[in-house]
Amino acid sequence: MKRAQLITGLVLVAAVLVTAVVAVFWTPFDPLRVVAGQRLLAPGWPHVLGTDGFGIDIASRLMVGARTILLVGIISVGVAAVVGVPLGMLAGQAGGWVDEVVMRVSDVVYAFPALLLAMLLAAIYGGSTVTAMVAIGVASIPAFARVARAGALQVMASDFVLAAKSSGTSRWGVARRHVLPNIAPLIGVQASVGFAMAILAEAALSYLGLATPRPNPTWGNMLRDAQNFLFVAPLQALWPGLAIALAVLGFNLLGDGLRDYLDPRLREVP
Amino acid sequence: MSLLEVRDLRVSFGRRRVQAVRGVDFDLDDGQRLGLIGESGSGKTVTALAVMGLLPENATVTGSVRLRGSEIVGAPEVALAQLRGAAVSMVFQEPMTALDPTMRVGRQVAEVLRLHQGEESGPARERVVSMLAEVGLADPVRIADAYPHQLSGGQRQRAILAMALINSPDLVVCDEPTTALDVTVQALVLQKLNEVLTDSGAACLFISHDLAVVSQVCDKVLVMLDGQVVETGTVAELFTNPQHPYTRGLVATARFDQTRPGQRLPTVEDFYAPDTSVGGRP
Questions:
Q1: Structure confidence by residue, pLDDT tens digits, A152-169
Q2: At the topology level of CATH, where does A2-27+57-262 sit?
Q3: Cβ neighbours of A167 in B, within 8 Å
Q4: Enclosing domain of residue B150
Q5: Of A245, B31, B129, B182, which residue has the fewest beta carbons closer than 10 angstroms?
């Protein structure tokens, strides 16, 4: 059962990855070229999922959307991990007032939803893929900081850290050689779950027009465009919605599966 | 000048200043082996951690611990890190948790070498493998490449011994190194500890609650009770002529041969009733 979860997650995530990579080199049709004569075609051949209100192939737009969403996911999770993990480790290892300051500031950031932050950034710099990545990244920092801190606290209390100190390892050495490798699985799980969050947030932001601007396709703005034709061509809204749901499900299942797989306490005895 | 001089060492914890060690004095000369014996909570481990400068931040330490004349109490972390692993090292009680599960055993031993001598990986590996062989591990190359979970408790404890001894420190602090091992493995580890200590000429502060184990390794013994040293002497003196009632109880409980079949085994309480009016004991 647990294994089935992990495998389903892996398959879904792999599907998104492969689609995105293929979209870099090839899409069945030009995802930007407007063809007035083929508006709102039903699914069939050669347009497998039909065409949208501008006569553009929906399958091609979905593929390019996967590329965008993956890019946003990777960069925002990367930003969050690169900033959040060292901060969390610092808080967990140093303790005392350093811990208090880092975690209270992180609580303040946590209180701002990514959406609000993105609206703020979009208002200042205009909505773009970069503002979405920054907003989602910054909003995800506290989650990584918390996970890293919790992990660091646990590792710091272990005998092997005391043993490392007793053989002259510096604080920095303990952090790099003992704390980081031991909390790496936790960070991996958080990255996977964070990725699902980022996909959802990106879709919401581009639906609201605060992320990647048109005509570049994202799953979020495809959903918005489909809204205008909801009674004429309801399937149009289904495809990007399904893509978002499956991608989020995939990363969540992967995260859950990884957690179970990596946590020896939850591992079933063979 | 002695290798280690401990003077009026007092350690207390937390805001309530619970005293774990109350005025301990002792000296340790080069190559000497001193046993520190006492029951759980008597301050043995805290004394050892104070010698290493490894007490947690909520501990208040007063008094003096001098290693080759340099003060450990209140010394900056950087200075302590240079001493630890090179001049003084420690063997821990629990072999299951004292090795990092994410690091190969050989690399963990090499790490101690690298920290203090900055050796290149090639010769360091040879040193590590020969050190692992020296502590009695039969297949040192395989063990160097193994992760801790792939080794038995006895193998791990000997790997920890190798870590503690690879830089030939002047002093090795052993905190109940054999308590978690079964009796046969315990005998083997003690024998190896004896051998490597004799070979390197290192002094040893050996902590245990087991008088029999201490008598196998040490020349002199300190008996600790409620954070204070209640008796000092050679192993022979302690066995033949214990002075403090608590020590008499300890010795009696260790001498099964003097109990006739059918007779009730002696307990420490037969000799020493803890005074509940003073101190923190229940």
A1: 999 998 999 999 998 888
A2: MetI-like fold (1.10.3720)
A3: 84-85, 89-90, 111-112, 115, 163-164
A4: 4-241
A5: B182
